[in-house]
Write a structure and sequence with these properties.
Order of helices and strands of chain A: HHH
Number of strands of chain B: 0
Protein name (chain B): Vitamin K epoxide reductase domain-containing protein
Keywords (chain B): Membrane, Transmembrane, Transmembrane helix
Largest sheet of chain A: none
Mean pLDDT of chain B: 84
Keywords (chain A): Membrane, Transmembrane, Transmembrane helix
Oligomer: heterodimer
Number of helices of chain A: 3
Radius of gyration of chain A: 24 Å
Number of domains of chain A: 1
Order of helices and strands of chain B: HHHH
Organism (chain A): Plantactinospora mayteni
Helix content of chain B: 55-70%
Number of strands of chain A: 0
Structural class of chain A: mainly alpha
Protein name (chain A): Integral membrane protein
Strand content of chain A: under 5%
Chain lengths: 135, 116
């Protein structure tokens, strides 16, 4: 039972973190068609959530695994979670390389939207300042 | 009872499973990532293959990527066989084998392109 639990935790880190990172980076590097500003913000927020979750889980899962495996004195998983911290560092290095290649920050970026800029349709006269045509 | 002594050799089947897990994860992530991107409406769909749904793209990938996938699997079998005798962990063997096979297939592809 313990073994299965630790195994699930390890597989969640091994495949889950790269999965979230790939999905997040594809969204981040894409140029989606977003009709409104709020849609663009929602798209950016989802991408941020994916990337942040991946980065947090990348550290949280191996550390939890090491602690749990030591607690139940499981040698096989203690060794594996211990070594997985090397993988954690490698993933952080890879993400920081991607970060340095990007011009805008990886997290906290909003894609362009297709919403037209608001046009000025009304003229409001100011006293002593500008007047309006026709009145 | 849970404290089983770690085997010195990686299990071949388990390593292969880990490597296949990597391929599945990456393919699924690319598929999910692309499916989540809203496409431009009013595209010119006159040309063949210009406007495909993700499902159609996946189908095309399976057909065109078949030889690459077959090469990848064959290379994975060989690399896993070589590594499993030396590396004590199945998870590490499978991961290295998946990485190594991608490199082998990439190099083979580059050589093939160069010879043409």
């Amino acid at each position: 039972m313990r073994r299965a639990g630790l195994g699930v935790l390890f597989v969640a880190w091994l495949y889950g973190v790269p999965f979230l990172l790939i999905v997040g980076l594809i969204r981040r590097t894409s140029s989606p068609y977003l009709a409104t500003r709020s849609a663009a913000q929602a798209f950016g927020a989802t991408t941020d959530t994916l990337l942040t979750t991946a980065l947090v889980l990348n550290l949280a899962l191996p550390v939890t695994g090491v602690l749990l495996a030591r607690l139940v004195r499981h040698r096989y998983w203690t060794r594996h979670f211990g070594w997985s911290l090397v993988g954690t560092v490698l993933i952080y290095v890879a993400v920081s390389i991607a970060q340095s290649a990007a011009t805008a920050p990886l997290i906290g970026w909003t894609p362009d939207d297709q919403e037209p800029a608001p046009r000025v349709t009304q003229c409001i006269p100011t006293s002593g300042g500008r007047g309006c045509p026709g009145g | 009872m849970d404290d089983v002594a770690a085997p010195r050799r990686a299990s071949f089947g388990l390593s292969l499973l880990v490597a296949l897990g990597w391929y599945t994860t990456v393919l699924a992530a690319v598929f999910v990532g692309h499916a989540g991107i809203p496409a431009t409406p009013n595209r010119d769909c006159a040309a063949v293959f210009s406007c495909m749904t993700p499902q159609e793209e996946l189908g095309l990938l399976v057909i065109l990527g078949g030889p690459i996938l077959a090469g990848l699997l064959f290379s994975t079998l060989v690399v896993t066989g070589l590594l499993a005798r030396r590396v004590p962990s199945s998870i590490l063997t499978g991961t290295l084998s998946a990485l190594g096979s991608v490199v082998v297939v990439a190099v083979a592809g580059a050589v093939w392109q160069g010879l043409r």
